[in-house]
Amino acid sequence: MANDPIHQFQIAKWIPIEIGGLDFSFTNSSAFMVATVVAAGAFLYLTTSSRGLVPSRLQSVSEMSYEFIASMLRDAAGNHGMRFFPFIFTLFMFVLVANLLGLFPYFFTVTSHIIVTFALALLVIGTVVVYGFYKHGLGFLKLFVPSGVPVVIAPLVVAIEVVSFLSRPISLSVRLFANMLAGHIALKVFAGFVTSMTALGIAGAAGAVLPLALTVAITALELLMAFLQAYVFVVLSCMYINDAIHPSH
Amino acid sequence: MFVASAFAQEAADQAAGEIHTETGVAEHGSEGGFPPFLVETYPSQLLWLAITFGLFYLFLKRVVLPRIGGILEVRRDRIAQDLDQAARMKEEADAAVAAYEQELAEARKKAASIAQEARDNAKAEAEAERRRVEAGLDSKLKEAEARIALIKDTALSDVGTIAEETAAAIVQELVGGKVDKASLSAAVKAAQQQ
Question: Which residues on chain B are in Cβ contact (under 8 Å) with A44?
Answer without folding.
Answer: 60, 64, 68
